[in-house]
Amino acid sequence: MKMILTSMIIAALTTAPLAQGFSECNLTQPRSHKCFGILGQSLIFYLPTSLNTKTRLEKNTDVILNLKNYSLLNINEEYKSRSTFFTNGTFMLSSATKNDSGEYKMEKHASNGVLLHKIIVELDILAPVSKPAISQTCLSPEQKTVSCFSEGDEVELTLSLHDNALIQTRPKKTDKHNVLNITISLHGQLMGNLTCIVQNNVSREQTVVRLRSCTDTISHLSVLNVVVVTSISILLLVLALLLGMKCFNKTTNRITVNEVDAEDDVVYSDVRVKQQTNKTTTTSHQNAK
Ligand SMILES: *[C@@H]1O[C@H](CO)[C@@H](O)[C@H](O)[C@H]1NC(C)=O
Ligand SMILES: *[C@@H]1O[C@H](CO)[C@@H](O)[C@H](O)[C@H]1NC(C)=O
Ligand SMILES: *[C@@H]1O[C@H](CO)[C@@H](O)[C@H](O)[C@H]1NC(C)=O
Ligand SMILES: *[C@@H]1O[C@H](CO)[C@@H](O)[C@H](O)[C@H]1NC(C)=O
Ligand SMILES: *[C@@H]1O[C@H](CO)[C@@H](O)[C@H](O)[C@H]1NC(C)=O
Ligand SMILES: *[C@@H]1O[C@H](CO)[C@@H](O)[C@H](O)[C@H]1NC(C)=O
Ligand SMILES: *[C@@H]1O[C@H](CO)[C@@H](O)[C@H](O)[C@H]1NC(C)=O
Predict the structure, then answer these.
(1) Does 111 contact ligand 2 (Cβ within 6 A)?
(2) Lowest-confidence pick of 4-8, 26-30, 86-90
């Protein structure tokens, strides 16, 4: 079993706050469309109201509310306690849940009952993306792997080096833990600023780290001592705490030893990058395809 020294680099852990904590869905727009809401945050619907009209909002087969003139005629009990209605047509749900995702229908009728307008809106409630965590692992002086990890719904991830995209995923329906962990393989001597951007339709976060040359790590690896292991364990522990990991592995001391090809939810992809340094003209992984 190969022992690999994993080093983690944490970029400034300033968790960029998401907007002002609400999202909007405008049902006064003339056409059917799609809306996105942020899980756990307020969601505001704009409904058309006017004199001598009735407005009805339905979700699937449930009637959520009926408006008449500018006021609320009636509201579904399930929504009453968690919503606020203003006479200008603003209807606010206090905390969006996954269950709020679905198809909403808005109908506007004249007071004589004639249908004036009808639209359908598909609402998708998404968990925002977390700030990406980047880790680097040296396998040899010629090869290292770099991983970018983020949580959230339908995450789209881009890893780039000096503004050149190395890999870009399409929005993924992430697994039930909403975890995306992309690993790429790079030449061990490659250096520079590596950026990982993660986004979905309600949020965007990014992390930049400096890629390090693998040579140093390898020479230290042969004289690996307790001090190095301990300090890295502490660093990893700090990272784990910051990431809010609940179940940190049974063998905390050996966390520096990783088997790279063991993870379940890891997508591997080999990326070749042209070496710009003049000392190594031999780019390593050929014939990968
Ligand atoms: C909703 O959409 C309508 C039509 O496009 C627009 O006039 C109105 O300003 C929008 N309302 C809000 C609150 O954005
Ligand atoms: C709306 O309010 C106006 C004035 O109060 C009233 O004359 C009218 O009948 C109301 N229309 C409906 C549909 O209730
Ligand atoms: C509607 O009224 C509420 C409460 O007065 C206000 O906060 C909101 O900005 C208004 N919305 C629009 C679109 O005018
Ligand atoms: C989900 O929403 C529907 C209305 O669309 C409601 O009938 C149902 O009780 C809700 N379920 C939960 C678990 O909140
Ligand atoms: C990498 O980023 C650092 C700080 O963000 C910057 O000073 C440096 O110039 C960047 N290096 C390259 C090669 O872009
Ligand atoms: C946002 O949603 C649209 C579909 O409405 C999709 O095509 C697009 O890729 C999504 N964007 C992101 C960043 O997920
Ligand atoms: C992501 O996958 C890599 C490669 O398996 C692993 O080293 C790293 O610890 C994973 N990151 C997280 C946060 O799980």
Answers:
(1) yes
(2) 4-8
pLDDT digits (tens, 9 = 90+) for 54-74: 999 999 889 999 999 889 999
Atom nearest to 210 CA in ligand 5: 1
Q: Residue 175's pLDDT is what?
A: 56
CATH class of 2-126: mainly beta
Least confident of 26-35, 139-148, 276-285: 276-285
Say yes or no: CB of residue 282 within 6 Å of ligand 4: no
- The full set of domain ranges for the chain reads 2-126, 133-212, 218-284
Tokens of 98: 């996954």
What is the CATH code of the structural domain delimited by 133-212?
2.60.40.10
Burial 175-205, CB ≥16 within 10 A → b, else e: eeebbbbbbbbbbbbbeeebbbbbbbbbbeb
Count of CB atoms situated within 10 Å of the CB of 115? 9
Residues 6+ apart with CB under 8 A from 118: 105, 106, 107, 108
Give the span between the Cα atoms of 283 and 272, in whole angstroms: 8
Ligand 6 atom 14 nearest Cα: 200
Indicate if the alpha-carbon torsion angle 254, 255, 256, 261 is positive or negative. Answer: positive
pLDDT in tens, 170-192: 775 555 668 899 999 999 999 99
Q: 171 C-alpha vs ligand 5 centroid, how far in Å?
A: 29
The domains spanning 2-126 and 133-212 adopt the same CATH topology: yes
> Which atom of ligand 5 is nearest to 162's Cα?
14
